[in-house]
């Protein structure tokens, strides 16, 4: 039976994360290293953490990091959203948490990702509900009870670090806190590069045609074509870099999720430009149209 949240896992890798280099390194040292090489930690007499808190604004890549670390370290991944655990029926929330920890221990190494941790574990003085109080207590009990440290790790994500119960932030619980902030201009360029990786930007189709022509040619023709190919390649490269630079600098305040949406929206605009020439009643879109479809820089603009 697939783990909860498995459908959203896909094969996210470190290559899919833009910016956040230091943060990712920190998460890897804290989670992946002890998972893969517990002997290093045993030898040095240090305890790997049981919990790591990722905090920062929404859409900055907290979930992405958790998925990538699980994937790349081959850990079983269980993802839950805080509010989902809170059940109004007496005792059910605790039962749900116990099941999640059982599943993790049975499938260790494992990562339990709790999104919106603040909704399960708000500061106890803020809490009016009895349920939340019991859930925090249960979560603490489960984390304290983890036997082999480092083989089951809980990653909590929150937009509001100050809203998390202090008891959870003590050593032996979520004892590492890593800020996942909004991306810098350089990071935004990297994120856009990732999200436009597979997109045909202006000029790219011409490059593909020229490449085919080159591959099918021989002798002196190949030498002439090689020069042309190089020229087009440089030109296309320049257009793509220009796009990345322009939209990297124009998007102050955008987080990763916004940049992903920007790239998707540009592709949708391009698609709308082609719709009038596509007969949607026929089963297949003609190859020539498919081969000519491109995303223009203007598709990215307002
Ligand atoms: P929330 O607090 O709302 O749960 P989050 O920080 O967990 O947000 P993610 O779910 O990781 O955000 O990001 C949403 C989407 O935005 C990702 O699936 C990805 O497409 C894109 N994204 C966010 N940050 C990055 C990044 N640093 N690099 C590449 N893509 C990113």
From TrEMBL:
In the UniProt record, the signal sequence range is none
Instruction: Identify the residues that the record assigns to the AAA+ ATPase domain, covering every copy.
Output: 48-184
The entry's family comment says: Belongs to the AAA ATPase family. CDC48 subfamily.
Name of the protein in question: CDC48 family AAA ATPase
Taxonomic source organism: Methanochimaera problematica
């Amino acid at each position: 039976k697939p783990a909860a949240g498995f459908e959203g896992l896909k094969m996210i890798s470190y290559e899919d994360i833009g910016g956040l280099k230091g943060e990712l390194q920190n998460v890897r040292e804290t989670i992946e290293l002890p998972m893969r090489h517990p002997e290093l930690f045993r030898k040095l007499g240090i305890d790997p953490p049981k919990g790591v808190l990722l905090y920062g604004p929404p859409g900055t890549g907290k979930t992405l990091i958790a998925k990538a670390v699980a994937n790349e370290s081959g850990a079983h991944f269980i993802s839950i959203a805080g509010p989902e655990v809170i059940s109004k029926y007496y005792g059910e929330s605790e039962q749900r948490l116990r099941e999640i920890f059982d599943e993790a221990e049975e499938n260790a190494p494992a990562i339990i990702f709790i999104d919106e941790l603040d909704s399960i574990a708000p500061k106890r003085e803020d809490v009016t509900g009895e349920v939340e109080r019991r859930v925090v207590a249960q979560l603490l009990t489960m984390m304290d009870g983890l036997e082999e440290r480092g083989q089951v790790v809980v990653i909590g994500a929150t937009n509001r670090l100050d809203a998390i119960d202090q008891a959870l932030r003590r050593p032996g619980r979520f004892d590492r806190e890593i800020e996942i902030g909004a991306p810098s201009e350089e990071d935004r360029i990297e994120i856009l590069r990732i999200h436009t990786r597979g997109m045909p930007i202006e000029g790219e189709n011409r490059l593909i045609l020229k490449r085919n022509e080159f591959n099918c040619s021989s002798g002196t023709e190949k030498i002439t074509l090689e020069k042309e190919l190089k020229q087009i390649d440089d030109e296309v490269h320049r257009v793509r870099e220009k796009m990345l630079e322009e939209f990297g600098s124009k998007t102050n305040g955008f987080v990763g999720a916004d940049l992903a949406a920007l790239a998707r929206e540009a592709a949708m605009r391009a698609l709308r430009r082609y719709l009038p020439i596509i007969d949607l009643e026929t089963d297949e879109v003609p190859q020539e149209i498919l081969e000519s479809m491109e995303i223009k820089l203007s598709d990215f603009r307002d």
